[in-house]
Amino acid sequence: MKRNKILIVSLMLLAAGTLTQSCKDEFIDVSPSESMTVGDIEKFNNNDGATYFVNSIYAKFLDWNMSTFAWIGVTSIVSDDADKGSSSGDNGSDKDILDALNFTATTPSFKELFASNYQGINRANQALLYIPQLDKADPALRARLIGEAKFLRAFMYFTLVKSFGGVPLVDHVPAPGSEDDKKMQLTRVSKEQIYAFIEKDLQDAIAALPGKSTYTGNNVGRASVGAAHALLAKVYLYQKKWQLAVDEANQVAGYSLTPEFIDIYKVTGENNAESIFEIQGSGAVSGRAIQQYTQVQSPRGTGGWGWGFATPTQGLYDAYPDGDKRRDATIMHRGMSLYDNRVVNIDAENKYYNYKAYSSAYYDQASTDTNIRYLRYAEVLLIKAEAMNELGQTSAAIPFLNEVRNRAGIGVTPAASQADVRADIWKQRRLELAFEHDRWFDLVRTGQAATAMAADGGKVFKVGTHEVFPLPQDFIMEAGGLSAQNPGY
Q1: Start-end of H helices in 100-190
Q2: Distance between CA atoms of 168 and 94, rounded to whole angstroms?
Q3: What span, in angstroms and rounded, lies between the C-alpha atoms of 383 and 387?
């Protein structure tokens, strides 16, 4: 049975009607809570009440529209790492469209991606509004919770800016009836403004959060100062702020690589020494699993136990060199005996499936014990190697690259020049982080997307358009001219 999970309870359920959502007709779901009375605040004016506000943000990451079908589609299926999979007659709403790069502003997954993250941002903004008012809660706890809320808000805005470029900057709970706040919700700001906001939230989080080791029991898995430094390093990497990326990566201390790669993705490997931040899922407690994350990606058909979407491509399989331990820890195939001796049926519908989403104890259940690994120490090493190499410090960057390669069992890099080291770092990111929701964004930020997609069955990446996804058409219509659609859509 899975233990040491963050206690996740929906804030709205806890409030039992004292906090009700308004303005449900608005597409961008950042509707304010109705104003709390003094009596309502008193109900939350204790340590548990303060914690509930932040737990509601974590709870959002368990939702279907946040972390499952749409997210898998726009990060894995759209890339050269995964095909739609499943059966030919099941398009998964729009997963065939994503796979073919034929998406438009009305493609449903983008609406889910956009709305779900703003739902989470709304919860963060509520936490940041109300926690400072809870004067009977422990001050140190309140400070930490505010740091967690800012980390999670930064995390969600990073998803949005990578996906859409400039988006509305909703930095507080909108006041009912405020025209300025309504305009705030419907007006895009530049991606540079979003990145600046993310950086400030993470800097504030760094000042407030404790080290990972301070979390015990039900608090294991909460955002730590190491997670904030690691995410900020990644944010700087995406902006090509190389020295700042190195500086932040250097602050990520106390972590180490898991000796055997496959052990990372077992229940016993969750929140281990390599783990920096992961979304916690538990099948043992009702309502605490990442909704159908495993089921959607598990083997389909004869002898299967899932829907079979997001199947690894042959190109990804072939990209792993002989002897690379990561391949058989990332990709399960027909006839394969898994680490718990379960066998993938030789007649399964698809050739390959995502092993990182596998759950041993709850393999065929909608609610499983799979965590999503979002930040690992291996990525910090690769961030440091990439940024140092871009700064011209190639010889100093290579040892960090080699740490990742050696754990994979493929030895030190043969690359020596800056260009060759860059190419190997990018390749190792693909092989190391496959199905951890980075590949599409890596292809875009490094300028590899057009070539990679052409190699993936001749798919056409439209330069000047596909670098960002289209904003949902419903939002554009609701904005009424306050926000323009991304070019080409």
Answers
A1: 108-130, 139-164, 179-186
A2: 25
A3: 6
pTM passes above 0.85? yes
Residue 321, both tokens:
């060199």
Give just the sign of the alpha carbon dihedral 108, 113, 119, 125. negative
| pLDDT tens for each residue of the chain, 489 residues long | 343 344 333 333 233 223 333 333 344 444 444 456 666 889 999 999 999 999 999 999 999 999 999 999 999 999 999 999 999 999 999 999 999 999 999 999 999 999 999 999 999 999 999 999 999 999 999 999 999 999 999 999 999 999 999 999 999 999 999 999 999 999 999 999 999 999 999 999 999 999 999 999 999 999 999 999 999 999 999 999 999 999 999 999 999 999 999 999 999 999 999 999 999 999 988 889 999 999 999 999 999 999 999 999 999 999 999 999 999 999 999 999 999 999 999 999 999 999 999 999 999 999 999 999 999 999 999 999 999 999 999 999 999 999 999 999 999 999 999 999 999 999 999 999 999 999 999 999 999 999 999 999 999 999 999 999 999 999 999 999 999 999 999
